[in-house]
Amino acid sequence: MKSCYLPIASFFLSISLLANSQQIEKGGISSEMLQQIKQSYQGTSTDKAIRNAICNNDINKLAINIDNKNNFDTYFSHKVNSKGITDQKSSGRCWLFTGLNVFRAQAIAKYDMGDFQFSQVYPFFWDQLEKANLFLQGIIDTRKKPINDKMVEWLFKNPLSDGGQFTGISDILSKYGVVPAEVMTETYSSENTSRMAYLIKLKLREFGIQLRNEAAQGNSVTSLEKSKTQMLGTIYRMLVLNLGEPPASFTWTRKDAKGNPVETKKYTPMSFFNEFIGKDLTNNYIMLMNDPSRDYYKLYEIDYDRHRYDGRNWTYVNLPIEDIKEMAIASIKDSTMMYFSCDVGKFFDRERGLLDIDYYDYGSLMGTTFNMDKKQRVQTFASGSSHAMTLMAVDLDPNGKPKKWMVENSWGPGANSGHLIMTDKWFDEYMFRLVVDKKYITPKVKEVLKQKATLLPAWDPMFAEEK
């Protein structure tokens, strides 16, 4: 028996070794490779000290460049006045706060008001209803496609979001108008959107399956759209329960900067929009993008990237960063704030409200380098726009070149009274989008706007919503 088992054991050992060898040949880590890899950590006293420090502390605290930390100038040569900081709380509505803050500053300046705010919850209500319709109508439009079709998958993955970008400002405000903050106030669900969003998305996905089933049974488009209307009634009720019901009209007293009443009038949301904003938001504003992974001086459009089914797809001009700075400076010099978005989490000291690529020295701490440029970071999903704020100040040197920038944020009061300061080098690397009044665009941009836009897919990761 013994002589019989030895060959069998040897056979299985050989098979195991062969399988292991084949695995290594396909890219696995061999014992020889592992020994080589381990040489990167020698366990010297320096290595141990760094390991002890990192294991017991926040990496950002350890990586602060102390020389750079002490060079922090908060003076700005050109600045648009701002009154009061807004707070989006635990919601993804930065795009909405940012857009409203642009128009808020203009209204305050025009009417000499104090800390005036537009209601953020009012347009948010309509945004959520319109996005629900956008999803359901998309399901109807794609009813003949298989469930695993790329567009159908994208719709079911993204039935609703509280995030967005400037297209939402133009889509929602131009259709539903605006109201003052005190006419429709914030609720727990508007400031903490996750649970409400979860339930509405769950219901929308259920409705989406129902519409596809009705279509598979041969129901006409008219019948499907009748079902959609009933479904939107359910969504409307859920929104009212969470956010309150939007007013159809209201009476409001405008006050001056000292708090004295100036005028009391009855408004509708659209008449209030016309008086205190009064612009063609769809055609008067141009989105500029700095995306080095795509060709510059080109016009692009993102398919299905809008906040209303009957709205306008997000369209932008892709430009070198210096071209964008030129228009940003012109706008600030003319006391006009702008919708601005960036990758806010990179090289950010929240306690000081500072964004500076030289602020953290990760390379020295980790004993390596991080050398990807902006194009490579975009291509590898290491960076992209994540947050919208209101660009309001620039500090120019004697030659008119920017040294640093300031934005009005929507995270409540904090460092720099709720404003963030970014160095010009940080602006180069992590700024992505800027929306400017078309009166500030250059002749070059005017020519680009004449192009037929290149259509990009809705699921392109570069166009995730800002929150």
Structure in words:
The chain is an alpha+beta fold and 467 residues long. The protein has helices at residues 2-25, 31-38, 45-55, 59-63, 66-69, 94-111, 121-141, 150-157, 166-176, 188-191, 194-216, 221-243, 269-276, 281-284, 321-333, 362-366, 374-379, 424-430, 443-448; strands at residues 78-79, 250-255, 261-267, 285-289, 298-302, 315-318, 338-342, 348-349, 354-355, 387-396, 402-408, 419-423, 431-437, 454-456. It has one domain (78-463): Cysteine proteinases (Cathepsin B, Chain A), CATH 3.90.70. 45% of the residues lie in helices and 15% in strands. Strands 1, 4, 5, 6, 7, 8, 9, 10, 11, 12, 13 and 14 form a 12-stranded mixed β-sheet that branches. A two-stranded antiparallel ribbon has the order 2-3. Strand 8 (348-349) and strand 9 (354-355) form a beta hairpin. Helix 7 packs across helix 9 (166-176), helix 7 (121-141) runs parallel beside helix 11 (194-216) and helix 7 packs antiparallel against helix 12. The longest helix is centred in the N-terminal third of the chain and has 24 residues, at 2-25. It is globular and about 70 Å long. Residues 1-6 have low confidence and may be disordered. Residues 1-19 form the signal peptide. This is Aminopeptidase.
